[in-house]
Structure formats: C-alpha cells, structure tokens
Design brief:
Length: 191
Amino acid sequence: VIKIGKNSFQNSSVKTVNIGKTVKEISDNAFSDCQNLNSVCADSIKVIGHSAFANCPSLSDVTVGPKLNAIGDYAFVGCSSLKEIKTPANLYRLGDYCFAESGLVSFQFTRSINVGSYAFNKCNDLTNIDCQGVTLNLAEGAFCECRNLSQLRGFVSPSELPNKVFNNCVNLEINDILTSDSLKVIGDYAF
C-alpha cells in the first residue's frame, strides 16, 4: 500500500491508526469524522490530504515523520483534543483552515513556510507560536480569532501583513511586529 484513498475510513469506528512505511499519501477525507480516532502514527507520509482528519474530536496524538512536506486544507479542522503536533523541517505548506478550531496549545515553525488562509482560525487554546527566526508567508486570517495567543517568539515580520492575519488576537503583544523595519503594509483588520 502506497496511498490511502479518498474517504477510505470516513466516519468509521477506528481508534488507532499506524500507517505502514510504504504509504506516502493520506488522501482527502480518508479519516474524517472518525469520532473515536485518538492516535495516528504516520512516519513515512509525504502528503496529508484535504480534510484527511477533519472533525475527529478525540484525536490527541499525531506523529509524523521527516518526509512530510504538505498538510492539506482543513486537514485537522475541528480536532479539539489535538494539543500538539511536531512538524518536520521539510514541511513547506499548511493548507487553508488546516488546524482551525483545533485544540493546539503551541506550534513551532522550523523553516520558511506558506501558511494558508485561516490556518489556525479560532484555535482558542493556542498561546504560543515559535517562529525560530524564519519568515512565514502568511495568508489572510492565518491566526484570526486566536484569542489566547500572546507570544510570537522569533517572529520575523514579512513586508506585508495580510487582511485579518491576527484579527481578534486580543492577548497578542504586537509592538515587536509593528516596529519591524521590514514591515511595509498592514492589511485590513489585521489586528
């Protein structure tokens, strides 16, 4: 098996998934709406498709390997028990709404990356983002309504902050962002 197809286990009663070393892709909706899914080990995966684990409220443990390079749109949306995911250095894309309304508490970026629209929208438990001094290519609303987000460690301001990028992040300390020499444009409703 090299690929888990679309909707393969959608809405099933699966609780634990240990993906074999030959599997490279988890397709769209493969495990979406699995109410009892709590653990996924996917060491060899390169791509996690759109909505692959969407609306899996019990999912609390996700392990990915160093080959992962893209997480699709809505991949982990609504995974309210997911508090942490360690992402590899090869990861270059986080899709739109990929972690929206999840239970993430912190997130660490290890390289310059494209962060999709509303990727972390309404992550109410998210308090800390560690950027490690890398530039993030942020899309509109990337961290919109992360009400408890208070810290952006090592954030390097891009030349432009898109619309709604930190909208309603009421606890975010923005002085370091606004005083950056590289920042030229602040989008509508950015904060």
